[in-house]
Amino acid sequence: MIELRGVSKKFGNNVVLDNVDLKIHQGEALAIIGPSGTGKSTILRIIAGLLAADAGEIYVQGQRRQGLIEDASDPIGIGMVFQQAALFDSLTVEENVGFSLFQHSRLKRSQIRKIVHQNLEMVGLGRVGDRYPAELSGGMRKRVSFARAITAHPHKPKEAAEVLLYDEPTAGLDPIASTVIEDLIRQLQCMQGVCSTYIIVTHQDSTIRRTADRIIFLYQGKVQWEGTVSETQTTDHPLIRQFFSGSIEGPIQVIG
Ligand SMILES: Nc1ncnc2c1ncn2[C@@H]1O[C@H](COP(=O)(O)OP(=O)(O)OP(=O)(O)O)[C@@H](O)[C@H]1O
C-alpha cells in the first residue's frame, strides 16, 4: 500500500533517515519504535506528505508521489493523528471534526453535522459536539482528533483515510485511558468488514503489544530490526533487549 525506497532526510548536519526502505501492506498494523530522536515522527510526516525527503521515492498504491501532499494526488487518503491532538481551541468539537468539510465542501451544514456526529459516536464521544477542546480531558481530545482523521466527504471516497498514521497516541495518558485508545485504534482498523492500514509510533509497551502486528526498530537513521510483538520478547538482538529492558548499558547511546 505504501512503499519507501531509499528515503533519506537530514536537518542541517543531523542525518535522521539514511536510505530507509519500508513497505506497508493493506490491512497491516505497523509500529515504528526506537529511542527518542531517531526519526520516527519524521518518517510519519514524510509518509503523510507533510515533509519532503532529501532523497528516495515514496509510492502510494504503486503510484509514485511527486512533491508534498498539497501538490500530489495520492490514489488513497492518508490521515494523520498528531502527538498533540492539534485541535483549534476556539472551535467546538463539532467544528474541529468537520473542519475540512465546513471549509472545502459544498455539503449543507446539516449534512456535515450528521457525518461529524456519526464519527464522534464511533469514538465514543457522541455527546460532546458543542463543547470546546479545553473542556475535555487529554484522552478525549485524542479521540476527537481520531474522529477528525476519519472524517471525509461522503462522495469523495479517495479522501477517506485508508491509511492512518498515529504519532504517540497514548503519550501522557494513564494506563486505563491508554487501553481505551488502543482498543479504539483496533476498532477503527476493522470497520464494515474491511481492515484498513495504520502505522503507529509509540514508546508505550502496552500500546506496542496491543496495537501492532509488525514492528520495526529505527535507530541511527536505519531500520535495525523487524519482527512481531512476540519476537520482541524472544529475540537476543542487543538493541531490542536494551530498549525493552530500559537499561542504560548497551549499544544505544543515552543522550543527555
Ligand atoms: N523541523 C526540524 N528541524 C530541525 N531538526 C528537526 C526537525 N524535525 C525533527 N528534527 C530533528 O530530527 C531528529 C528526529 O526527530 P523526530 O521527531 O523524527 O524523532 P522521534 O524518533 O519521533 O523522537 P521522539 O521519540 O522523541 O518523539 C531529532 O534530532 C530532531 O531534533
Task: Please render the helix and strand layout as text.
Layout: E1 2-11, E2 14-24, E3 29-33, H1 40-48, E4 55-60, E5 63-64, E6 77-81, H2 93-97, H3 99-104, H4 109-122, H5 138-149, E7 161-167, H6 175-189, E8 190-191, E9 194-195, E10 197-201, H7 205-211, E11 214-219, E12 222-227, H8 229-234, H9 238-245
Parallel strand pairs: 3-10, 3-11, 6-7, 7-10
Antiparallel strand pairs: 1-2, 1-4, 4-5, 8-9, 11-12
Adenosine-5'-triphosphate (ATP) binds next to strand 2 and helix 1.
Domain ABC transporter: 2-245
Keywords: ATP-binding, Nucleotide-binding, Transport
Protein name: Peptidase S16
Keywords:
256 residues; alpha/beta; Rossmann fold; six-stranded mixed beta sheet; 9 helices; 12 strands; globular; binds adenosine-5'-triphosphate; ATP binding; ATP hydrolysis activity; transport
Order of helices and strands: EEEHEEEHHHHEHEEEHEEHH
CATH superfamily: P-loop containing nucleotide triphosphate hydrolases
Label the structural class: alpha/beta
Low-confidence stretches: none
What do these coordinates show?
The strands form three sheets. A six-stranded mixed beta sheet has the order 6-7-10-3-11-12, sandwiched between helices. It has a four-stranded antiparallel beta sheet with strand order 2-1-4-5, with helices on one face. Helix 4 (109-122) packs across helix 5 (138-149) and helix 6 (175-189) runs parallel beside helix 7 (205-211). It has a single domain, classed as Rossmann fold (3-Layer(aba) Sandwich). It is α/β, with parallel strands linked by helices. It starts with a strand and ends in an 11-residue tail after the last helix. Strand 4 and strand 5 form a beta hairpin. The protein has nine helices and twelve strands. Bound molecules: adenosine-5'-triphosphate. Residues 11, 14, 16, 36-42 line the site of adenosine-5'-triphosphate. Adenosine-5'-triphosphate binds at residues 11, 14, 16, 36-42.
